[in-house]
């Protein structure tokens, strides 16, 4: 008798989107670095990523076609927040990305989710700023997400507490943290990250364990709890963040799956950014 | 037997309880350890049990309960004990007196005489172990105990014969009064005065008599003191009534007097109150115009058959249409300030874990509240959650989904599940309803609550405010602290441990925040409320929620330092910890109640007859709700549920401080007592629970004042105890006792709580150190004959620091000396047979303890041999036994529990003792010696006068109290717990007043216990504690410093 808030990390479906060629030149960047994105490599990475979801983890992957007019469209996470059987279609903070939500909305409708749309003019929210812990939401107030957007999210998911966390550095809240398991927050070791963690801890009625990794970017990983696999953690590769991976390897109960993200990270793409995970067997 | 007990270890307690359950049928072949514990003693016990009108099981339970009570007694129990004592006083005291032959005889002598015969039979039996109230029941049932009571109490109290009829209640009230009184020594003094002046003549004479007797025989004195206590209690009751009269002006119920009593007085003008219940029905009752809030509240709870009432409250609308909580301690009339006697019964404190509630009826009421909250939108939830909750509601109210039912949507749409209910939701509800097939109503309720409790706004009381920048925000008060919302977003959160002070000024509301790790200074955050009223209202809610969820025991209104400013308002009810403990002892069969569901359903009924049919079908065919409830009851009878819950409790209490646990136990014991008192089969009456309210801390103030007036000498002593308990490996204890230099006498009756705490700690730590309080209590002995039980406690584990030990020993020695004389009287009281029995029990306990601690070696046998064991020892032993038993039952895993329990007991006893005056209750009777005492320290020998006998049930409690508290009645003034990440600081302030002859002594003791992980720097913590103590009370001095280190225990604890 699954009840409210049961089954954190249970997913059956994933929505992903292809990488447009325009990503190389036109994708938004927060960093000043001009490192070129190798489109082929990026696409190979992404394919590998999708393959892990589909084949290795057995999710039903819904792959949306890339749209050249939307260079950042591969980062589907920002377009929607799905929790339970409710999907909030966001209003991304970057104007250029607003249209990304259309395809996402259609896809999620197809999955028979309750769709809530964020239409208010003065509300912005990127899914990358939304950290769902299983018991509550933390919403980073960042360059992309504002208070009003967080309020609408709170309205969409009334069961849960929604606390705001200022994101002073980095693009999104999840640029330096993510969930590594039920009640386990993976957090980067930078000062802003640690500060944000403190705020989250203070704001929460629940206690979280933390897993601190040396690299903020490595702190973005994907946790799932799958029926026949147990705890699964997709994290960055030792190639990219050797020290952080050593930390992940301490998670003995997790099935650890390193996933390369070398290219997308150049345009601020983290692991969680590239998919929207859905549990179609609603909790109830 | 002993060995068996020992081996049983933790399981023993449970066994005991279980035994109780089992034993309902036959006592004969109790092979269980528990039985052994309870019944080993003598055939006499059995006979008693048999005599009980109630089922054997009940009785047995009582026995276990008794143990519990004694243990728990400390805080809440104090009240209860008082109540019990009051109730029992006649019988128990009489019995005790008879046994002692020192008939304290107040008005009870007659009764005593009657009882004596009984006592003779029963005295040796279980009765000793049983709390006084039990005895009362028996005696009442058998004889007419009420008659006895009325003369002394009623005469004074104005109670009419009606009271006699409702003897239990009266007793209970009296007990309550006593408790309060005990707590408030001052009152006692006043009582004396009053009693003398007033109708208390009976009681006073009794005291005098007692005194005389005591002068004659020291041993008898102890008994006398007990008697005195009882007398005091009576007096207190009387006084309480008197006070109430004086205070209330007329016959209003003072805190001390039970509201019911007052009501009975026919003189008062009656007013009709309308109370809207959670199911939408209206409850009407008459109350005196001057009745206090709790009177009405009790009436409502009685009507609802609700025992776990502490989560609830009454709401009224003030002149500004604002909903306010009715303060139970104040007159209704003065609160409502209008002629609109209209109230609503609501959930006041939403239990974070509804599954820990003991009774289904409580959960049902909580469900009703939440359904209303959800339907009104006060508790926001998503579509799916609305549907899920709605489906559980359907299951609970209508049973399984009926496929044949025509047009189910018709009636569903007449029910309100959500503010924005629509067809889609109703369909979803129906769909989910189908999946709940087979759930009983109670199960459906449980599922409902399991989901509802996870909602983020569950139990959050919202208040409009503005921040410093005049931005509209909401302040949410909840179990965990204060939440700050802007619109729907949580923008800040202040957990209770982070909050140092809560205050309001005009329309500003402030919280002082503990500095963070990197911060050096405290900061204050201010919010603007709409007006002064709303600021005060918010402040009150904060105080109450903090007290309820965070404290072990409510903080007395008097000297609270934590939440001060402006108002003296304090939470007067029981804390969650207390109520949990109390409710864990509930062992009545699950009450039948109808889930006639609320207005909603009735509406639906009107609209669609179908529903009725459905319901009927359900009831008939598939256990209707009632049936369900019935079905449950058997389980409870068996006690399974209770024990399971127990374990749950324990788990839950993991992070709680020892103090809390103790308190829990105390409250539990109280509850048990109350239950015991109540007529067995009948549905629970408003009992000590309610009474507890009466014994609210507020009274202490009065008492103090009174004491001062009467008093010749006032001693103030402060004790600061800093404890460090490391879960991981080491735990350290630092106790600093400050005594007021001015106070020459150390009548320290350390407050029961403190003692309890200490004891607990000790127990946990391996029972290492005796509590300093114990020694203190000895001093009290002057007033109260009770012998210091401390000796047993005195055992200091190896871990204790030498210095500390020395100090303690010295103190104890002193105390012992003082107590010595007192002690003497006690011994006389104790009957040999009883002593033996007790000894046996003690031995058993000791064994268990020994096994646990390894330190204690049971010498009980020796003690048993010597009927003349020192009273202290005896008491100690008793307490230990009880503790062991309780601990076993309660804590299988935690040795600490045992210690705690013992502490509680000790505390309780002192309280009882406090009453010092008279007669009635023996509560304290010290019993036999403890092995501990002998083993532990020399002190024991000193103190120990030879005690023998004592038959009264109360004894257990008394013993501990005596030991620790020494018969001083202690009032727990303050108890606050402040928790930071690594440290938990508990501050307890006890005020003890003692009346001896014309002198009254008041001792104020403050104890600070700091518990923390191994990392704690003892020296620093100690220094800090001393410093703070001195700053707060420049006129007091630190008299004692105790440091406990626990290593093994700590691990075990974890």
Automatic annotation (TrEMBL), chain A:
* Keyword Hydrolase set for record: yes
List, in alphabetical order, the Gene Ontology terms for molecular function in this entry: amino acid binding; dimethylargininase activity
UniProt xrefs under InterPro entries: DDAH-like
An annotated GO BP: arginine metabolic process
Give the highest taxon in the source lineage: Eukaryota
GO terms for cellular component: mitochondrion
Pfam families cross-referenced by the UniProt entry: DDAH_eukar
Say if the entry is tagged with keyword Hydrolase: yes
Its keywords, alphabetically, are: Hydrolase
Which residues of this protein are catalytic? Answer: 172, 273
Annotated positions binding substrate: 28, 72, 77-78, 97, 144, 267
PANTHER family in UniProt? DIMETHYLARGININE DIMETHYLAMINOHYDROLASE (PTHR12737), N(G),N(G)-DIMETHYLARGININE DIMETHYLAMINOHYDROLASE 1 (PTHR12737:SF17)
- Per the similarity annotation, which family is this? Belongs to the DDAH family.
* Record protein name field: N(G),N(G)-dimethylarginine dimethylaminohydrolase 1 isoform X1
Name the encoding gene, please.
Answer: ddah1
TrEMBL record, chain B:
Q: In which domain of life is the source organism classified?
A: Eukaryota
One Gene Ontology cellular component annotation held by this UniProt entry: plasma membrane
UniProt keyword Cytoplasm, yes or no: yes
Q: Which CDD domains match?
A: FERM_B-lobe, FERM_C_4_1_family, FERM_F1_EPB41L
Q: Which Pfam families match?
A: 4_1_CTD (PF05902), FA (PF08736), FERM_C (PF09380), FERM_M (PF00373), FERM_N (PF09379), SAB (PF04382)
Basic and acidic residues bias spans: 91-100, 107-125, 172-195, 204-248, 806-820
Ranges for region Disordered: 70-253, 763-830, 846-900
Among the GO biological process terms of this entry, one is: actomyosin structure organization
Q: What is its main location?
A: cytoplasm
SMART domains linked: B41 (SM00295), FA (SM01195), FERM_C (SM01196)
Ranges for domain FERM come to 271-553
Give start-end positions of Acidic residues composition bias. Answer: 849-864
Q: Which GO terms describe its molecular function?
A: actin binding; structural molecule activity
Q: Write down the PANTHER family for this protein, in alphabetical order.
A: 4.1 G PROTEIN, BAND 4.1-LIKE PROTEIN 3
Name by which UniProt lists this protein: Band 4.1-like protein 2 isoform X4
């Amino acid at each position: 008798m699954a009840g409210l808030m049961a089954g954190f990390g249970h997913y059956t479906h994933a929505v992903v989107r292809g990488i447009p060629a325009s990503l190389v030149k036109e994708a938004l960047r927060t960093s000043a670095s001009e490192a070129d994105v190798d489109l082929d490599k990026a696409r190979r990475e992404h394919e590998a990523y999708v393959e892990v979801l589909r084949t290795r983890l057995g999710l039903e992957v819904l792959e949306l076609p890339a749209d050249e007019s939307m260079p950042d469209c591969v980062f589907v996470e920002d377009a929607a927040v799905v929790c339970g059987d409710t999907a909030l279609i966001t209003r991304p903070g970057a104007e250029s990305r607003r249209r990304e939500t259309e395809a996402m909305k259609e896809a999620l409708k197809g999955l028979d989710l309750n769709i809530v749309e964020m239409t208010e003019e003065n509300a912005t929210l990127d899914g990358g700023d939304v950290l769902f812990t299983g018991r509550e939401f933390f919403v980073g107030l960042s360059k992309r997400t504002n208070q009003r957007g967080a309020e609408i999210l709170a309205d969409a998911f009334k069961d849960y507490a929604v606390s705001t966390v200022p994101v002073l550095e980095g693009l999104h809240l999840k640029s330096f943290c993510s969930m590594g398991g039920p009640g386990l927050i993976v957090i980067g070791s930078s000062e802003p990250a640690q500060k944000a963690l403190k705020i989250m801890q203070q704001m929460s009625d629940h206690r979280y364990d933390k897993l601190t990794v040396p690299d903020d970017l490595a702190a973005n990983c994907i946790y799932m709890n799958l029926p026949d696999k147990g705890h699964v953690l997709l994290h960055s590769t030792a190639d990219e963040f050797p020290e952080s991976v050593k930390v992940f390897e301490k998670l003995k109960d997790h099935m650890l799956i390193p996933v390369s993200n070398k290219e997308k990270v150049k345009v601020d793409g983290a692991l969680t950014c590239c998919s929207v995970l859905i549990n179609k067997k609603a909790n109830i | 037997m002993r060995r068996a007990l020992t081996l049983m270890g933790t399981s023993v307690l449970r066994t005991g309880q279980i035994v109780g359950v089992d034993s309902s049928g036959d006592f004969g072949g109790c092979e269980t350890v528990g039985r052994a514990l309870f019944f080993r003693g003598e055939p006499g016990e059995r006979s008693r049990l048999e005599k009980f009108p109630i089922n054997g099981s009940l009785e047995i339970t009582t026995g276990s309960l008794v143990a519990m009570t004694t243990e728990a007694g400390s805080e809440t129990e104090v009240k209860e004990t008082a109540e019990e004592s009051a109730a029992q006083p006649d019988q128990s005291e009489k019995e005790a007196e008879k046994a002692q032959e020192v008939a304290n005889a107040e008005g009870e002598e007659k009764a005593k005489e009657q009882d004596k015969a009984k006592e003779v039979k029963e005295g040796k039996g279980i009765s000793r172990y049983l709390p006084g109230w039990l005895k009362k029941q028996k005696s009442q049932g058998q004889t007419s105990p009420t008659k006895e009571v009325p003369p002394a109490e009623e005469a004074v109290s104005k109670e009419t014969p009606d009271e006699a009829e409702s003897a239990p209640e009266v007793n209970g009230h009296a007990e309550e009064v006593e408790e309060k009184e005990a707590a408030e020594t001052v009152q006692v003094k006043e009582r004396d005065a009053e009693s003398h002046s007033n109708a208390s003549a009976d009681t006073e004479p009794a005291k005098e008599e007692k005194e005389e007797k005591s002068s004659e025989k020291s041993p008898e004195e102890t008994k006398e003191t007990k008697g005195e206590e009882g007398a005091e209690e009576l007096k207190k009751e009387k006084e309480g009534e008197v006070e109430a009269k004086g205070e209330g002006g007329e016959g209003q119920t003072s805190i001390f007097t039970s509201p019911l009593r007052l009501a009975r007085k026919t003189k008062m003008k009656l007013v009709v109150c309308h109370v809207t219940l959670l199911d939408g029905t209206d409850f009407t009752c008459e109350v005196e115009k001057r009745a206090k809030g709790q009177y009405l509240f009790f009436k409502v709870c009685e009507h609802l058959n609700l025992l776990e009432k502490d989560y609830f409250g009454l709401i009224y609308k003030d002149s500004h249409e604002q909903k306010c909580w009715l303060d139970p301690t104040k007159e209704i009339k003065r609160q409502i300030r209008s002629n609109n006697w209209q109230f609503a019964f609501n959930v006041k404190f939403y239990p974070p874990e509804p599954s820990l509630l003991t009774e289904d009826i409580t959960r049902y009421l909580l469900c009703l509240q939440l359904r209303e909250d959800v339907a009104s939108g006060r508790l926001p939830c998503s579509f799916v959650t609305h549907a899920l909750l709605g489906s559980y509601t359907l299951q609970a109210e209508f049973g399984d989904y009926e496929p044949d039912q025509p047009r189910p949507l018709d009636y569903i749409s007449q029910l309100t599940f959500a503010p924005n209910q629509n067809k889609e939701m109703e369909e979803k509800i129906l769909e989910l309803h189908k999946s709940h097939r087979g759930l009983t109503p109670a199960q459906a309720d449980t599922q409902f609550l399991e989901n509802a409790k996870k909602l983020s706004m569950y139990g959050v009381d919202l208040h409009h405010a503005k921040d410093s920048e005049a931005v509209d925000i909401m302040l949410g008060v909840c179990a965990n602290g204060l939440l700050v919302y802007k619109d729907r977003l949580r923008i800040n959160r202040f957990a209770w441990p982070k909050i140092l002070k809560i205050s309001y000024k005009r329309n500003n509301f402030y919280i002082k925040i503990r500095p963070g790790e990197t911060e050096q200074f405290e900061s204050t955050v201010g919010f603007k409320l709409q007006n002064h009223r709303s600021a005060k209202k918010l402040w009150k809610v904060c105080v109450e929620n903090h007290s309820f969820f965070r404290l072990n025991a409510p903080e007395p209104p008097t000297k609270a330092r934590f939440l001060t400013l402006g108002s003296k308002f304090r939470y007067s009810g029981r804390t969650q910890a207390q109520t949990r403990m109390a409710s864990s002892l509930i062992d009545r069969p699950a009450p039948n109640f109808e889930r006639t569901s609320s207005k909603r359903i009735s509406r639906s009924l009107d609209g669609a007859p179908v529903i009725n049919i459905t319901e009927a079908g359900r009831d008939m065919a598939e256990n209707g709700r009632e049936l369900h409830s019935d079905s449950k009851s058997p389980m409870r009878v068996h006690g399974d549920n209770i024990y399971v819950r127990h374990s749950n409790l324990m788990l839950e209490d993991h992070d709680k401080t020892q103090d809390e646990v103790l308190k829990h136990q105390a409250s539990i014991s109280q509850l048990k007592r109350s239950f015991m008192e109540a007529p067995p089969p009948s549905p629970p009456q408003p009992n000590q629970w309610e009474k507890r309210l009466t014994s609210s801390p507020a009274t202490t103030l009065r008492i103090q004042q009174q004491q001062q007036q009467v008093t010749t000498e006032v001693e103030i002593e402060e004790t600061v105890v800093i404890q460090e308990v490391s879960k991981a490996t080491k735990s350290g204890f630092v106790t600093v006792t400050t005594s007021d230099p001015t106070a020459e006498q150390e009548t320290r009756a350390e407050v029961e709580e403190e003692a309890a705490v200490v004891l607990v700690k000790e127990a946990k730590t391996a029972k290492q150190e005796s509590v300093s309080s114990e020694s203190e209590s000895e001093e009290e002995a002057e007033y109260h004959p009770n012998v210091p039980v401390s000796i047993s406690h005195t055992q200091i584990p190896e871990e204790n620091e030498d210095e500390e030990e020395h100090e303690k020993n010295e103190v104890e020695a002193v105390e012992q000396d003082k107590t010595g004389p007192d002690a003497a009287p006690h011994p006389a009281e104790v009957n040999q047979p009883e002593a033996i029995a007790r000894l046996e029990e003690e031995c058993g306990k000791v064994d268990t303890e020994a096994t646990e601690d390894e330190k204690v070696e049971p010498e009980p046998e020796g003690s048993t041999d010597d009927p003349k064991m020192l009273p202290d020892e005896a008491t100690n032993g008793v307490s230990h036994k009880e503790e062991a038993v309780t601990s076993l039952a309660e804590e299988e895993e935690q040795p600490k529990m045992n210690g705690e329990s013992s502490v509680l007991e000790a505390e309780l006893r002192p309280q009882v003792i406090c009453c010092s005056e008279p007669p009635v209750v023996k509560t304290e009777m010290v019993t036999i010696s403890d092995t501990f005492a002998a083993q532990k320290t020399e002190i024991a020998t000193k103190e120990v006068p030879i005690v023998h006998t004592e038959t009264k049930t109360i004894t257990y409690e008394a013993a501990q109290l005596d030991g620790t508290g020494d018969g001083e009645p202690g009032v727990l003034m303050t108890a606050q717990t402040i928790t930071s990440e690594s440290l938990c600081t508990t501050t307890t302030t006890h005020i003890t007043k003692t009346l001896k002859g014309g002198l009254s002594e008041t001792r104020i003791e403050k104890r600070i216990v700091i518990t923390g992980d191994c990392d704690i720097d003892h020296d620093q913590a100690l220094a800090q504690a001393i410093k703070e103590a001195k700053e707060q009370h420049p006129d007091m001095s630190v008299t004692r410093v105790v440091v406990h280190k626990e290593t093994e225990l700590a691990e075990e604890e974890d």
